[in-house]
Design brief:
The protein has 313 residues and is mostly helical. It has a domain of 209 residues: Orthogonal Bundle (MetI-like fold). 28% of the residues are buried. It comes from Halorubrum miltondacostae. It is a multi-pass membrane protein. InterPro entries: MetI-like, MetI-like_sf.
Length: 313
């Protein structure tokens, strides 16, 4: 299939997915109990305000400020149109324009996610292929054990222990370490185990194949043998690379940014949920869907280059 047709097909699927997800989020935040409004009503009553008209005025002001003082169908159509045109309005909690707010938060998250992802892929694939080709080497088995240990240790526990040591004064609090190196390290540890496991498992299928024996018989170096094995194992591994990483990255992002107070994408979405900040939440949802669509397009196109026998459609 032509890459342009793949792009058009994925874009269409992305639009349908975006509509379904945005509609679900809008319904969840407009048809369920509003805990922010309940908190304001409760605070007014605690202050001694029990007049029904005054409480009704608080409700009316709250809904008017959020554009929900009209039929939900009208509000839904307007919200959906704003999402499509990237006119995401202003945050209901801070008043800042939503589009630059979400983009800046996503860029801050990418600053530690991208290096961690590259390191995890390079180290995980290298270690997985090495242990598949040389299972008797202690270096490989030790590396696999260390990767699985890092994967098994909860990121929130490890990060919390480091923070506690810092608060006790046992470790110095360096901005470079806590704003960059530790977030990269925790995200890297969350991804590494999966990449090692998948690359090792798929490489084992080809480690004893005839073409590997032929390359070795011709005097091919270990690097050349590994390149042949990885090329054949690349398609199933590449399928995991994006789908597995996206789920793990979402979890790791929330943990890292809450622990270290990083004003990134995960912390922004958590605050939006707590404040019922619908514009920010819908804008963040569009970004997540966009990343998913782009990743699927890259994955489909890459299949054809990794193995020309694969029909990209």
């Amino acid at each position: 299939m032509n890459p342009l047709r793949i792009l058009a097909k994925r874009a269409t699927m992305g639009l349908v997915t975006s509509w379904a997800v945005l509609t679900t989020v809008f319904a969840l935040f407009t048809l369920t109990e509003d805990w922010v409004l309940s908190g304001r009503i409760g605070a007014a009553r605690f202050a001694g305000e029990n007049d029904p008209e005054a409480l009704a005025a608080i409700r009316a002001e709250y809904f008017a400020a959020r554009g929900l003082d009209r039929p939900l169908t009208d509000a839904y159509v307007d919200w959906l149109g704003n999402m499509a045109t990237l006119d995401w309005g202003s945050s209901l909690s801070t008043g800042e324009p939503v589009f630059p707010l979400v983009m800046n938060a996503a860029a801050r998250t990418a600053a530690y996610v991208a290096p961690a992802l590259v390191l995890a892929v390079v180290c995980g694939v290298s270690l997985g292929v090495f242990t598949a080709l040389y299972p008797e080497r202690r270096v490989g088995s030790g590396g696999v054990g260390a990767a699985y240990l890092l994967f098994a240790v909860p990121g929130f526990w490890l990060g919390g222990m480091i923070l506690s040591l810092t608060l006790d004064g046992r470790l110095p609090r360096s901005p470079v370490v806590f704003d960059h190196l530790l977030p990269i390290g925790l995200t890297f540890s969350a991804l590494l185990g999966g990449y090692v496991s998948y690359s090792r498992a798929h490489s084992r299928e080809y480690a004893a194949a005839e073409f590997v024996s032929l390359v070795r018989a011709k005097g091919g170096s270990g690097y050349r043998v590994a390149a042949h094995v990885l090329r054949n194992a690349a398609i199933p591994f590449f399928s995991m690379l994006f789908t597995e990483a996206l789920g793990l990255l979402v979890l790791a992002t929330f943990v890292v940014e809450v622990l270290f107070g990083i004003d990134g994408f995960g912390l922004l979405l958590l605050r939006a949920v707590a404040d019922r900040d619908l514009p920010v939440l819908l804008g963040g949802t569009v970004v997540v869907i966009g990343v998913g669509v782009i990743g699927n397009v890259v994955q489909d196109v890459a299949y054809g280059y990794l193995d020309p026998r694969v029909e990209m459609g």
